[in-house]
Amino acid sequence: MGLNRLGAVLAGLAASLLASTAHAAPELTPHDFTIRDFHFRSGETLPELRLHYYTLGQPHRGAGGRIDNAVLILHGTGGSGRQFAAPQFADVLFKPGGLLDPASHFIIAPDDIGHGGSSKPSDGLRARFPHYDYTDMVEAEHALVTKGLGVQRLRLVMGTSMGCMHSFMWGEMWPDQMAALMPLACLPVEIAGRNRLWRTMAIDAITSDPAYAGGDYRDEPAHGLRAAEDLLIIAGASPLPMQIAYPSGAAVDAWFAKDLPNRLKSLDANDLIYQVASSRTYDPSKGLETITAPVTWVNSADDFINPPELGIARREAKRLRRGKFVLIPTSPKTHGHGTHTWAALWQDELAALLKRSGG
User: Fold this and answer.
1) Fewest CB within 10 A of the end CB: N or C in the chain?
2) Res 77: pLDDT
3) Is a pLDDT exceeding 90 seen at residue 318?
4) Per residue in 44-68, pLDDT tens?
5) Averaged over 188-195, what is the pLDDT?
């Protein structure tokens, strides 16, 4: 699910479908936070877990001395906090006077475990890296926010794709530590059915390539990675905008011949396997009633990964005490799963959420 690779892949695909005009991205400031002796749910440990993250704006302390303007934004599978500098997101929300203007908000956008500049298999441990899952990732996010940055209560937690799922987990694990939640492009149930299948297929494509060598490859297993990336492209695509952007066979072939090699350049097989597999234990469905913060949950009708015809979203949304579910209809302006990053399509819902949750 999520920007790029299913994060950088998914909304990266969306960005390429309808080219946006070049705008100067906000200057995200990079940082690193180290968690010592991190214990994973698998029983494995790392003596030092590095979390890379980005910030925009400055923390503001209220009358009680606590930071009151922090916004946590969580990326999708294969993505990075840096992806939120994309113009379709940043130029809408982070602009002067925007809903998350850095002049009045303190934006925190981490690279999750296994992603971006944070600790990951390709740093050297390869397939011996601890087998992290979403709970490990969310625990590390929480440590960064509370221990690293001293934020005890977030104004907003929002996330795209995998970050959407993490948002639901935040609401259940620390219900008093955020004023509002905005999950974008996910379902709060165990990953099963076709969603589980394409993930399994992507992992199998890599591990069944003889060049993978059990994770100790010298050169990337090119055939396996190519097949996995093909699946990720399809998972993130939307038929209508693709048909509009590439109305002929020649146009499709030209795009694919150029785009796929660019995607493959940045892939590491072990990193990708771990990223996709980290969803294996996700299932917040048992605790949705424990979420006390106001929630606006947004999916899009043309999302291959979270198709509305399953009926899951509308069923589960009824269990949220203060929840609202929004389904964006398919149109030439939507981008399949990657609609989560095109803020113009849902910024009015964010404005309403911020208003009903305290300002």
Assistant:
1) C
2) 97
3) yes
4) 999 999 999 999 999 999 988 999 9
5) 97
CA distance 239 to 14: 11
User: CA 7, CA 163: separation in Å to the nearest integer?
Assistant: 10
pLDDT band at 19 (very low <50, low <70, confident <90, very high): very low
Q: Which domains does the chain have, with CATH numbers?
A: 3-356 (3.40.50.1820)
pTM comes to 0.92
- Residue 17: pLDDT above 80? no
Which residues fall within 8 angstroms of residue 268, CB to CB, at 6 or more apart? 120, 121, 122, 220
**Of 332, 352, 60, which Cα lies nearest the Cα of 180?**
352
pLDDT at residue 13 greater than cutoff 50: no
Cα 270 versus chain centre, distance:
19
- The pLDDT tens digits for 192-204 are 999 999 999 999 9
Return d(Cα 346, Cα 333) in angstroms, integer: 12
Residue bearing the bigger pLDDT, 74 or 241? 74
Tokens of 14: 């969306």
Burial (CB count <10 Å: 0-12, 13-18, 19+), residue 247: exposed
